[in-house]
Design a protein that fits this description.
The chain is of the alpha+beta class. The protein contains four helices and six strands; from the N terminus they run H-E-E-E-E-H-E-E-H-H. It is elongated.
Length: 183
C-alpha cells in the first residue's frame, strides 16, 4: 500500500520551504531572517552570514551585525550590498548597522505579489505530490498489491491531507500579506 506518511512528509517539507522562502521577503520591520540566504566569502568559502556574525535587532527598524572575526566586515558589507534586499550597511570598524527604511506603497504591492507567487508555487507542489501519490496507488492496485476499496480509501485520505496543506499555505500567505501591508 502506498505510504501516505511519505506523501504527507513531502507536503510538510513543501510548507517548510514556503515559510523559509517567505521569511526572506523584506517587510517594514527588521528581522534576522532577512539574511538567511546571504553567503559571505570566508577565506574562499561561501559561508552563511549567521555563521560568521551575531545578528541582533535592537530596534524595530535597525539590525546590528557583529562579526566574530573583525576582518570580515568588508566581506559582509559586500555580500549585503550584492543581495537583492536593497539595504545599505554602515560600519564603525567593530559592528555593521543596517537601518531598515520604510517600504513605499508600491514596493509593498510588489512584495505581496511576489509572496502570492511563492504561495501559488507551493500549492502547485502540494497538488503534484498528491498526483504522484495517486499514481503510485493506482500502480499498486493494478499490480494487485492493494484492493480497489483500499485504493479509494487512501485516495480520500490523500485528498484530505492535500486540502489541509493548501489551507495551511493560504493561512501562511495571509499572515505574510498582513505583515507586509502593515509593516
Amino acid at each position: 500500500m502506498a505510504d501516505i506518511n511519505t506523501t504527507t512528509s513531502r507536503m510538510e517539507k513543501t510548507i517548510s520551504a514556503l515559510k523559509d522562502e517567505l521569511n526572506t521577503i523584506r517587510t517594514g520591520r527588521a528581522s534576522p531572517a532577512l539574511f538567511d540566504k546571504i553567503k559571505v566569502d570566508y577565506y574562499g568559502t561561501p559561508t552563511p552570514l549567521k555563521q560568521v556574525a551575531n545578528i541582533s535587532v535592537p530596534e524595530a527598524r535597525m539590525i546590528v551585525l557583529q562579526p566574530f572575526d573583525k576582518t570580515l566586515i568588508g566581506e559582509i558589507e559586500k555580500a549585503i550590498q550584492k543581495s537583492e534586499l536593497g539595504l545599505n550597511p554602515s560600519n564603525d570598524g567593530k559592528v555593521i548597522r543596517i537601518s531598515i527604511p520604510p517600504l513605499t506603497a508600491e514596493r509593498r504591492k510588489e512584495l505581496v505579489k511576489n509572496a502570492k507567487n511563492i504561495a501559488e508555487s507551493s500549492r502547485v507542489a502540494i497538488r503534484n505530490i498528491r498526483r504522484d501519490g495517486n499514481d503510485e496507488l493506482k500502480k499498486q492496485q493494478k499490480d494487485g498489491l492493494i484492493t480497489e476499496d483500499e485504493l479509494k480509501t487512501t485516495e480520500t485520505e490523500l485528498q484530505k491531507a492535500t486540502d489541509k496543506f493548501i489551507q495551511q499555505i493560504n493561512k501562511i500567505f495571509e499572515d505574510k500579506e498582513k505583515e507586509i501591508l502593515e509593516g
